[in-house]
Amino acid sequence: MPQLTRQMWFRMVLRITPVAGGLKTAQYAAMREMKLSLDHVMHPAASSMMSFGILGTGFQSVIYNTLISEMYKVYTGKAKQPVSIRELAKGVQPGLVWCFGRESVAMGLGLYLGPVVKTRLATAVQDETGKPSIGGVHIAEGPLRFTAGFASGACTAFATQWMHNVSLFAGRLAAHAEPEGAPYYTRAAWTTAYKELGPAVFYMNYPHRMCLIAGAVALLTYVDIFHRPELRLL
User: Fold this and answer.
1) Does the entry feature the keyword Transmembrane, yes or no (predicted)?
2) Three-state SS for 168?
3) What radius of gyration do the chain's Cα atoms show?
4) What is the pLDDT of residue 208?
5) What is the mean pLDDT of each run of 10 residues along the chain (234 residues)?
6) CB 90 within 8 A of CB 17
7) Could you write out the DSSP letters of every residue in 46-103?
8) Which residues, 6+ apart, have CB-to-CB distance to 208 below 8 Å?
9) Angle of helix 161-175 versus helix 141-159 axis, rounded to 10
10) Cα–Cα distance measured from residue 147 to residue 24, given in angstroms and rounded to the nearest whole number
11) pTM of the predicted model, to two decimals?
């Protein structure tokens, strides 16, 4: 493949940003609908985790496949062979259990904990008037929500870092067509990951992923996407 030039990089960004943004918007919209529906039959924490786990696992696979296809077009100037529904479903199988756990806890639980942490944080720093403030400076609602969301996301990202790493090993085993544990590689991926990484499986690559997860949880907590449950698409 050709070397990645600045012009090619800009073309890639312009091409994949609307695609990734559109798919992420669809993911969060569908997740919101599912979460608000499940709130009637289960605890809000469970509904957040279930909606993100189920939809996040599928959407992430679609997003990755789509972005790879778009980048292939930029690199080679040729359209990549379209992925069929069967191939797409097959691509979700490796590490399915780990992907579900990662998405449901990292984002789902993180979004549930954001408002909880925000309430406790506001109580911890309130002054004699009952308003949150530090050093006599009043803290607005927005920064409180963002900070609480970031802290929650950072914690849930760390809690699921091992699942993320194990899911990557599942993808590697599938790429090499390893027969043991196929097609899901649930146990095989864990044993291979721990054998190669040891305790580092629990924290390797955490800083970069923490920025993504904590940032996303902070932003969604800041805008409070669940604050108007009566506004529904369905």
Assistant:
1) yes
2) helix
3) 20
4) 93
5) 71 81 88 93 95 88 71 70 72 88 95 95 88 88 95 97 94 88 94 97 96 95 86 73
6) no
7) HHHHHHHHHHHHHHHHHHHHHHHHHHHHHHHSSPPPPPPHHHHHHHH-TTHHHHHHHH
8) none
9) 50
10) 22
11) 0.84
Cα–Cα distance measured from residue 138 to residue 131, given in angstroms and rounded to the nearest whole number:
7
Instruction: Using the structure block, give the residue that is written with the tokens 């990755």.
Output: 64
- Give the length of the chain: 234
Environment class of 162 (CB within 10 Å of its CB; exposed 0-12, middle 13-18, buried 19+): buried
For residue 176, what are its two tokens?
A: 């090499």
What is the H or E stretch that residue 128 is in?
A: none
- Could you give the CA distance from residue 73 to residue 173 in angstroms, rounded to a whole number? 26
The residues spanned by each domain of the chain are: 6-223
Q: Which residues pair with 137 in a beta bridge?
A: 134
Place of tokens 């790493």: 165
What is the pLDDT at residue 135?
A: 83
The one-letter code for the residue type at 103 is: E
The reported pLDDT for the residue numbered 176 is 87
Query: DSSP H helical segments within the chain, as ranges?
Result: 6-38, 44-76, 85-92, 96-103, 110-124, 141-159, 161-175, 186-197, 206-223
Q: Tell me what pLDDT residue 80 has.
A: 62
pLDDT score of 24: 85
d(CA 174, CA 57): 17
What tokens appear for 45 in the block? 């924490």
Structure tokens at 102: 């990662």
Among candidates 7, 3, 34, which has minimal Cα distance to 225?
A: 34
Token pair listed for 142: 């927005």
